[in-house]
Amino acid sequence: MAILVSNRLERLASGSILTTDLGDLTVVSSRPHGQRHIVAFDGIATRNQAEKYRSLTLRAEPLQDLNELWVHELIGSEVVDQFGISRSTVGQVIANPASDLLELTNGALVPVCFITDFIPHTQVTVTVPEGLFEPS
């Protein structure tokens, strides 16, 4: 069983290739099972064969979708507010129920919903309310 940490189910479509520390795996089939997915891979037919892959992280190549904002493209990007003032760079993205947050390297938190423009790996433009970047 696999825990999918993507909202893109095509990652588990038949023929998809996932990378592990033990090499690439090709998806034969998959189906949801509760909060997880049951995935069959080419060349892994028995439980004993599958055991060596237990607890491995499966990775996929980034999808090319111009309408999506990808976390890996935000990290390290310069954050510029609506007045053109550079505020810091994105250190990480924190999952939050209301809105994911950009945690800047200077410690500031900016809701992702404030992003108005984005150049991957380069710059994030945000429109923020007055006082967001003021010390508390």
Which features does this protein show?
six-stranded mixed beta sheet, three-stranded antiparallel beta sheet, 2 helices, 9 strands, 37% strand, elongated
> What coarse outline follows from CA principal-axis ratios?
elongated
Mean pLDDT: 89
Trace the largest sheet across and list its strands: 7-6-5-4-9-8
Main sheet properties: 6 strands, mixed
Q: Helical content, roughly?
A: under 10%
Q: From the alpha-carbon coordinates, what is the Rg to the nearest angstrom?
A: 19 Å
Number of strands: 9
Order of helices and strands: EEEHHEEEEEE
How much of the residues is beta strand, in percent? 35-45%
What does this structure look like?
The chain is mainly beta. The chain contains 2 helices and 9 strands, in the order βββααββββββ. The longest helix has 5 residues, at 47-51.
In short:
Helices cover 7% and strands 37% of the residues. It has 136 residues and is mainly beta.
Secondary structure layout:
Layout: E1 17-20, E2 23-33, E3 36-41, H1 47-51, H2 71-74, E4 78-81, E5 86-94, E6 101-104, E7 109-111, E8 115-119, E9 123-126
Parallel strand pairs: 4-9
Antiparallel strand pairs: 1-2, 2-3, 4-5, 5-6, 6-7, 8-9
